[in-house]
Amino acid sequence: MISRRDAFLAGATLALAPAFARAAPVEAPAEAPGARPSDDWALADRILARIKPPTFPDRDFPLEAFGGDPRGVADSSQAFRKAIAAASGAGGGRVVVRRGDWLTGPIHLQSNVELHLAEGAVVRFKTDPRAYLPLVFTRWEGVELMNYSPFVYAIDCENIAITGSGTFDGQCSRENWWPWKGPWKQNQHGWAEGMADQRPARERLFRMAEDRTPVAQRLFGEGSYLRPPFIQPYRCRNVLIEGVKLRHAPFWQLHPVLCTNVTIRRVDVDSHGPNNDGCDPESCTDVLIEDCTFATGDDCIALNSGRNEDGRRVGVPCQNVIIRGCRMADGHGGITIGSQISGHVRNVFAENCRLDSPNLDYAIRFKNNALRGGLVERIRYRNLQVGQVRQAVVTVDFNYEEGADGPFTPVLRDVVIENVRSGRSARAVDLQGLPTGRVERITLRDCDFQGVAGPSVVKFVKGLALENVRVNGKLVRDLTTGA
Length: 483
Hints:
By secondary structure, this protein is mostly beta strands. The chain has helices spanning 4-15, 37-50, 77-89, 199-210, 308-314, and strands at 60-62, 71-75, 93-97, 100-104, 107-108, 113-117, 121-125, 136-140, 143-147, 152-155, 158-164, 167-169, 231-234, 237-242, 245-247, 260-265, 268-271, 285-290, 293-296, 301-303, 318-324, 327-328, 331-337, 345-355, 360-367, 375-388, 392-397, 411-424, 427-432, 438-449, 457-459, 462-471, 474-475. Helices cover 12% and strands 40% of the residues. It has a 22-stranded mixed beta sheet that branches. A six-stranded parallel beta sheet has the order 20-23-25-27-29-31, with no helix packed on it. The longest helix is centred in the N-terminal third of the chain and has 14 residues, at 37-50.
């Protein structure tokens, strides 16, 4: 167990480390009157031209050569540490995890290292929370703190990758990690009355953030019940996550924070535990998410930039994000922005995705409130196929959690959604701003909503434009009346 003094010193040291993402370029072109989608997507092309996966020297470091056990009997934690250190110390290379079962605690990557899981390799993470100590500098629901290590973690690294076709199995279940959530969905995740859970620590963390308590003094870990993310690169540049499978996650699954030049490609994410968001880039710049598959216990993709006062203190937006060719099944939202967006979100492009499941609540989701505040702007989505969703195809929810109870102004503006085809939903759209918020300049173009059960909801929205929009085969000019 780490001492409070050691945790303080570790946090103070990490807080002084360079924050690569803060120097990233900001794309904020002037808006041209009457600009058409082709003008907008030229910006997407410029962003894509900057995003380049890292490359590595042609050197392999097999895990078994450093004492790893492919039978999954002995703990391979030390083998991972040694192999990663050797690869980094040699100037870079590939740590190869061959076919087999490998038991380990947290894996900490270093610069210029590719962690490669071969076909048939299964990395199973230990279920004892004490294996994820000492505390590390991390972010939890948009707030910085010292907490358990993420299962796969990197901080202040350049040129890192996780590749291959193998599987990361967090081994989280009704017995391990998930019950820490507390009450959730009829408690099928293992929690019962009288069991300890995250709620007191969550409240304490959020209070510390509002009081601007130094991060090095926000000490959690044992006795706090705050589950760590599955994979979290923190303040890294040139990140690639490609091909692997994620199963049985503790919390948010792919969670890059304050990273620049991130590629997430062909990842298969399937975990239905509490808060099992699929991919949550937070305060990142230049991100490509493509050809991934998501079936989750929360949002499939959710873009964030810090929660409430901590998001304003750090002050780094999530920007220049491309999402394409992905498949979203179960989840709360398919492509989501929010709700931890106090540091703002801009320049988000999504295209050629399929979103389809009776267990998917919304295809396109924006969530915010008056305690978060934050500006979301310049959002472009096109060519989305929506089979069925449980609620609305498109939703804006400014009543999320605290709703109007806050002094800040949430803003969503300059959104163009075009060529969306949906087959079944309760509503076409459910757009609910706030009297004190701003939802403005929302354009739906060439959209066809079929199998819609009820009328849409539009409240506190200014400048909603409908261009060739059909609901149940009828061309409409007013979504709320169907006229």
